Amino acid sequence: MRLPLLIAALGVVSACAPPAQVSKNRPLAEVGAGFDTSGALQMVAAPGSDGSLVRDFMDLTFAMESGRWLATFSRFEGPVTVAMTGDVPATAPRDLGVLIGRLQSEAGIDIRPASGAATITVEFASRSELRRLAPTAACFVVPNVGSLAEYRRQRGSDAVDWALVTRRERAAIFIPSDTSPQEVRDCLHEELAQALGPLNDLYRLPDSVFNDDNFHSVLTGFDMDILRLTYSAGLVSGMTEAEVAARLGARAGLQAGNPPDWSRAIETSLGRNGSVSARKASAERALDIAVARGWRDSRLAFSWFAVGRLSAGSDPARAVEAFSRAGAIYASLPGGEVHLAHVDMQMAAMALAGGLAEEAVRLTDRAIPVVERHQNAALLATLMLIKAEALDALGNPAAATALRMDSAVHARYGFGPDKVVQARMRDIAAVADRADKG
């Protein structure tokens, strides 16, 4: 990117630039049109930062997101069935069918759809109802229950404590019914993977949904390898960490997790609470910690990304620097191409706001094929709409109109109802207007 020119042009960059598609907590209202997810991702599994799939498996399997250690290995023993109940969105059965097919063929799991009683129940309820039980979660999974009503009765008891589970018998996944088709699909992928396998997330994994950065929308080749290990013949529920390590030829003892101060800082920066300036300060603090620790992996890149997001409206020069540094790191990481596409979207929006339409087209053209492969309809639609505004600015309204029409199916799947799609289109048009008024 032509950094000096872009920085000079960004004096009027707007804070309404399209947000990064990293959080699944978007309050949408209805189900929209479908999006083709029939093609399984053909991605090569990329190792984690330590280069060891088994090491990553151990760190994912014997700890939880909270940092709590798990004493025993657990999984479902025998065939697994999955049923849906509640206010099931129209797109959910097909998306679940595609996912189950991938779990069978790529992870080797004996799993199939069912109706009625099942090993894993996916219940759909209103977002407001679910937030009363889990205020910060887009969706969640609970052991040893088969319904939301049962979870309410058991909530707070040992029965629904994952740390006490030694063999998985039943589980329930709870997903909002009043959200976009993409959020439903993303929740199916992440929560079914955790119902079946690891309960932990690691920020250092660049090519995985087992990562709270939420850059990946669907299960990757790496994730399928982790689940294949979970259901390998040599393991059985109830094994200790040492027993699993010995069976897999790994060393016992988990790697140190992320420093709590970095995790708190990054989570605060990307949360909903606090002013933008306070969240930006948290992002800068996370970056300082990452640099001090000598990290060179996706955690450093994500720290830079968070700084970029929160600087775009107030300090465009800092935002350009941050996104550029994040992009350079992601470009060097195995499995980092979709992360770079998120960076490209942010930079394209800033280029559009700064009057650099050709640069916006270049960045969106680089990102669009990557995002198509990774099946992120919301990000794809955003990139297409940014490019359409740039084409308008370059004097090609016919191509811009055609591109907006092409984006419609992706936008409805990614954002939900037409009113939300129209709002996103207005937001992006407003970014382009800033350049005209600059």
Radius of gyration: 22 Å
Quaternary class: single chain
List the uncertain runs: 1-51
Principal-axis shape? globular
Largest sheet: 5 strands, mixed
Architecture blueprint of SSEs:
Blueprint: H1 3-9, H2 53-61, E1 80-86, H3 92-107, E2 111-113, E3 120-125, H4 127-133, E4 140-143, H5 148-154, E5 171-176, H6 181-196, H7 221-230, H8 241-248, H9 260-270, H10 276-292, H11 298-311, H12 316-332, H13 337-353, H14 357-373, H15 377-393, H16 397-415, H17 418-437
Parallel strand pairs: 1-2, 1-3, 3-5
Antiparallel strand pairs: 4-5
Mind explaining what this structure looks like?
The chain is mainly α. It folds into two domains: about 210 residues, Serine Threonine Protein Phosphatase 5, Tetratricopeptide repeat; about 200 residues, Collagenase (Catalytic Domain). Helices cover about 50% and strands about 5% of the residues. The chain is built from 17 helices and five strands. A five-stranded mixed sheet has the order 2-1-3-5-4. Helix 1 packs antiparallel against helix 12, helix 3 packs parallel to helix 6 and helix 15 runs antiparallel to helix 16. The longest helix is centred in the C-terminal third of the chain and has 20 residues. It starts with a helix and ends with a helix.
